[in-house]
Every structure is written in structure tokens, then in C-alpha cells.
Design goal:
two-stranded antiparallel sheet, Ribosomal Protein L24e, Chain: T, 78 residues, alpha+beta
Length: 78
């Protein structure tokens, strides 16, 4: 599945690590992903998802069903 948020699609970003002498080396800026069990009220069960912290904050204001539909995820198969 990889290091990618299942709801928002956030993933790693290519960037440079810049030293004091301004030497630039490539590095990855990883997304802050958490594996969480979230209660899905419409399905009356728990669903395990790998989410970014931004998606977790969004779940407080919107339902899981709405976000999954926007992301194109079928919660019945999880």
C-alpha cells in the first residue's frame, strides 16, 4: 500500500537538505501518517485506515462516509 494517506492521497515530497555551507543533498519529507481504527457508523463496525494527521482533523468535522466517497474508497472492502 505504501506510505500514502488513504483519504487525502498525501505522500512524501522530494526536497533538499541544506547544510550551513549551503550544500544541498536530496531527502524525503514524509507525510505524518497514523494507522487508526475509526468507527464507521453507517456500516456499524470499525475500519482500519492509514491516515495523515490532516485527515484525522477533518474527520472531526465531516463523517467518514463523506470523505471515503470523495476519495473513491469502498469501506465495505476494508
Amino acid at each position: 500500500m505504501g506510505r500514502k494517506c488513504q483519504l487525502t492521497g498525501k505522500k512524501a515530497n522530494n526536497a533538499f537538505a541544506v547544510s550551513h555551507s549551503h550544500r544541498r543533498t536530496k531527502r524525503l519529507q514524509e507525510a505524518n501518517l497514523q494507522t487508526k481504527r475509526i468507527w464507521w457508523a453507517e456500516g456499524n463496525r470499525w475500519v482500519k485506515l492509514k491516515l495523515s494527521t490532516k485527515a484525522l482533523k477533518t474527520l472531526n468535522s465531516q463523517s467518514l462516509q463523506v470523505l471515503a466517497k470523495a476519495a473513491g474508497i469502498n469501506l465495505n472492502k476494508l
